[in-house]
Design brief:
alpha+beta; D-Amino Acid Oxidase, Chain A, domain 2; 5-stranded antiparallel beta sheet; 12 helices
Amino acid sequence: MALLPQNSIIFSWSLKPKSTFTALLGSSLNTKKSISPRRLSSPSSLFSIRCYSVLSQRPLRYAVLGAGYAGLSVVWHLLQHSPKEAPLFIDIYDEIGIGGGASGMSGGLLHPYSPKVKLLWKGEECWKESLNLLRIAENAKFSQSSNVEKQDHGQNENNFMVRRRGILRPALSSKNMDTMINNAQDFLASCRIETINRESAHNLVPSLFVPLDVAFHMPEAVNVHSQYYLEALYTACQNAAKDLSTSGVAHKELCLHKKSIDGLLELAGEYDAVIICLGARAAFLPELSGRLPLRTCRGVIARLRIDDHVREDYPDHGPSILADAWLAIQGPRDLHVGATWEWKSRNYSRAVSEGEATKALEELLQKASTVYPGIKKWSVRGLSAGLRAMPPLTPQGSLPLLGCVDELVGCKEAGKLWLFTGLGSRGLLYHGWLGKVIAQAVLSGIEGFIPLELTSWKHNVEL
């Protein structure tokens, strides 16, 4: 079996459907003949897992490529679910740094529903895990803050990380309104959908355009400042590594390298496993170029602020807005508007050229002013862009691409190279749960931890 340290012992046992990976590590086991780690029908099947001998204790070494939503979620879960007695070293590679790609400049509107307010595939699991990582990041960010800042818990509008004011989606077309109203009946108790009329919508956002007298309010949905969140999540990972090390069981170490990776196979020789979390940039790696069913899409986001001489603030209790353009409210006098869609772009720079800015602003402001006319009083303070990796449409929706890619890239060792990409415009929702899923798969060497819906893309790729 690949990736086992010297003097390691392999145990295998039957996993009950509701058991967790962490619980399994501490279970009393009966040794049995191990089985192949390549693919199981489900994580509840009989499987083998690496348990490290006390005498050997060879360090586990993992490389995580990318320091955005996917990469940092994977790092957190590797730290949480790796054997406590095993020394662990994780190297993160990102040429820009924490949140340097599309994740760091995303709109940050978090909820588990589609544009037609339908609960997304695995939406409940994703919503729960994302909120959990937000809490972890908030605790890390404010652990050393003053009591006043702790009580405010991140709601200082000048430096917020999570803005808890909900999200509002007005119905703008009669074409899908009946479908949306029906979909809105099936909501999560932890993220309600309230179907409200124009008057109720105006109580939240006075000048909102509600042409059909129907809007969908998600009061528990949140707006996340993505860059602040990612920086805090990285701090949480550092703290976790330090805490685990000081517990006296085994040393855990985390290191960020601001450098690009030119090839996978050469890097794989240094690590027990490499997890590729590069978003759209994964398709630019030589071993994966032209082999992933992804479409790249560049999106521009505009930052706006209302001028000081204008007295009309955005209401403090006002939710962010979803429509043809989204408005991510940063505070009473600051908001972000996005995003444009430039398909097949290979430009992942955040910088926006003058020509691109002119075209993007014309599109964004026209769409934004349709739903929120008051935006005409706001001034543009800057623009930035990111390159999204858009996955193909499946019967369950547009789902990320996960799985072991050893065979795809010609790696002769099993369980060496893993892919986690294609989060599209829902990276903030998907990253928590899927980061846990792929961390479990990597640590065990078993792709069966990953739902088949997320690995089925490999069946259509020529090896």
